[in-house]
Amino acid sequence: MRTATYFFIFLNLSLAVFEEPAVYPLPFLVTSLVEVLCLLVFFGRLTHFAKVTLRNVFWKDTKNICIMVAILLSLTDLAIYGVLRIYNVRSVRWSRIVRPIFLINFAESRQIRRAFRSIRNTLPEITYVFLLFMFSLLMFSLMALKLFGERNLQTAEGLPYFKNYLEIVFDLYVLVTTANSPDVMMPAFDFSSWYALFFIAFVIINTYIFMSLFLAVVYNNYKKHLKVMFGGLNCD
């Protein structure tokens, strides 16, 4: 039963690769039939669990409620999407976001729930570091707008450079990962090499200091909660 449950959970999650927009698109009828099959298996597994569990225990378990709600939402969304597709009305499969619920809430996924609880308990404690990072990002974006916004600079594609505040925030956010380095700074550097100091300061503060601090806080808090869970607390 455990192997079958994991197989159909994997199959259900894999549908995202084949549903529109997809990497390897398959006809809607094929993906919908596979999804219905997976949901039937999940419902059968839940029914089997209900047969071997006391009724009051079964209905008090939030995991079972979450699975039933996820099945109902998935079937509802699939039916609505199919009807709209018949009338050539474009829509979005919003129920895809509930598919990981099946991975987390089945009884066989105890270890995954432990990791999920550790992550959930860690999030409030890293909020302050995240807010400091966002404050730094917003301040640097504001400085970039003041420094470059009135210089009438252009990107390599001929677009205005650092004219829109929200676009600046996004570009600098990507720069934290160094994915758009050095392209994002080249228009300013071509105008004056002294502007490189702004980007050097930004990378040092946000990439090397804040990201290292963020990683350290996440790691320490996750390790602490994981030790607590394996130290004897109820993990179900």
Automatic annotation (TrEMBL):
It comes from the Eukaryota. It is found in: Membrane. Keywords: Membrane, Signal, Transmembrane, Transmembrane helix. It holds the Pfam family Ion_trans. Its main location: membrane. Residues 6-224 form the Ion transport domain. GO terms for molecular function: monoatomic ion channel activity. The chain crosses the membrane at residues 26-44, 65-84, 126-145, 165-182, 194-219. One of its GO terms (cellular component) is membrane. Residues 1-16 form the signal peptide. It is a multi-pass membrane protein. This is Two pore calcium channel protein 2. It comes from Eudyptes sclateri (Erect-crested penguin). The lineage of its organism: Eukaryota, Metazoa, Chordata, Craniata, Vertebrata.
